[in-house]
Amino acid sequence: MKPLGAASVIVGSYNDLDILPSTLAALAVQSHRDFEIVIADDGSAQDYAPVLRDWAGKFVHGIRHVWHEDRGFRRARILNRAIHVSRFDTLIFMDTDCLPHERFVENHVRFVGPGVGVTGRRTHVSRDAIPSPSQILERGLGFSPARLLWLRLRGRARVIEHGIVTPFLYEAAYNALLGANHSVLRTDVATVNGYNEQYVGYGWEDCDFELRLQRAGVRFRNLRNKVVQYHLIHSQRSEENNRNLKLFEHAKNHGVVRSPLGLSEIQSGDFRTANFGD
After folding, report:
1. What are the tens digits of pLDDT across the range 258-272?
2. For residue 144, is it within any domain?
3. Which one of 136, 174, 216, 245 counts the least CB within 10 Å of its CB?
4. pLDDT tens across 146-179, in order?
5. pTM, entire model
6. Alpha helix segments (H runs only) across the chain
7. What CATH number has the domain bearing residue 55?
8. 2 is a domain residue
9. How many domains, the chain?
10. How far apart are alpha carbons 167 and 4 in whole angstroms?
11. What is the model's pLDDT at position 268?
């Protein structure tokens, strides 16, 4: 079994101050603690600083907050800037509304490697089923199989089979990347020049990222019962974005590997960074 090294956990966020303390609490009780948090903030109007300052001391490598101006959904752009400022070779991607199982970081770090990316799935739970931050710190999220079944029977959880870490039968053949739950090494991300920032508005940026990584030789493993998350149930954005779909079709049909607008095109001063702790 390989030794577990440090990781950068990149957390996509936008006006998520109501759930941020709970997410940080779930990250604070991880079984593997050798990681930094990088908040990839797509232009929130809310002031995250007081919360991040309060929580930074609970993490070995602190928290970095990366922010750019709100000009609509520009997730690909802010993720690139979070990658740019991150310090470790293992990059783990999640969203603020996806609370990680206590072995989430450990299992991403354990299974990701050169030419091998990891992706997972998630169980959906209602917001009122999430413990308070103080309860999470004391007892964890508490989503045992029995608890998940109880929530499912009361209509407060869905896809509960993805909410359990198992010692076997944890890998699925369907290995499409889930944007809110994946990991890859920095060298592989650099090969494809990161996310393509031409994708503006919701949809297809993760499909493009996965496609180009695969062309660069990266194989993704869907470890649905190893890298587990609990996603807060909420209304879904519309995925109808013809412009982004056309970009993806172009990438697919023309053998694109490197993003034409990605990590290499980042300019100093086109985003803000604040460091908390470490």
Report:
1. 999 999 999 988 999
2. yes
3. 174
4. 999 999 999 999 999 999 999 999 999 998 999 9
5. 0.97
6. 20-28, 49-55, 75-85, 104-111, 133-139, 145-153, 186-191, 205-215, 242-253
7. 3.90.550.10
8. no
9. 1
10. 18
11. 87
Kindly state the tokens that stand for 223.
């470890």
Question: What are residue 48's phi and psi, to 5 degrees?
Answer: -80, -20
Tell me how far apart the alpha carbons of residues 277 and 274 are, in angstroms, rounded to a whole number: 10
| Contacts with 144 (C-beta within 8 Å, 6 or more apart), sequence order | none
Residue 231 contacts residue 98 (beta carbons within 8 Å) = yes
pLDDT score of 243: 92
CB count, 10 Å around CB of 9?
27
d(CA 23, CA 137): 11
Rounded CA-CA distance 205/69 in Å is 19
- CA–CA distance, 10 with 64 (Å, rounded to integer): 9
By residue count, the chain amounts to 278
- Helices marked H in 154-276 — which ranges? 186-191, 205-215, 242-253
Q: By residue range, what is the domain housing residue 155?
A: 7-258
pLDDT tens digits for range 72-125: 999 999 999 999 999 999 999 999 999 999 999 999 999 999 999 999 999 999
Question: Tens of pLDDT along 218-245?
Answer: 999 999 999 999 999 977 656 668 999 9
| In a domain? residue 234 | yes
Reading the block at residue 136, the tokens are 């999470």
Q: What is the CA radius of gyration of the chain?
A: 18
**How many Å apart are CA 138 and CA 163, to the nearest integer?**
20
Q: Could you tell me the CA-to-CA distances from 182 to 93, 123, 202, 228 in Å, in that order?
A: 5, 15, 18, 11
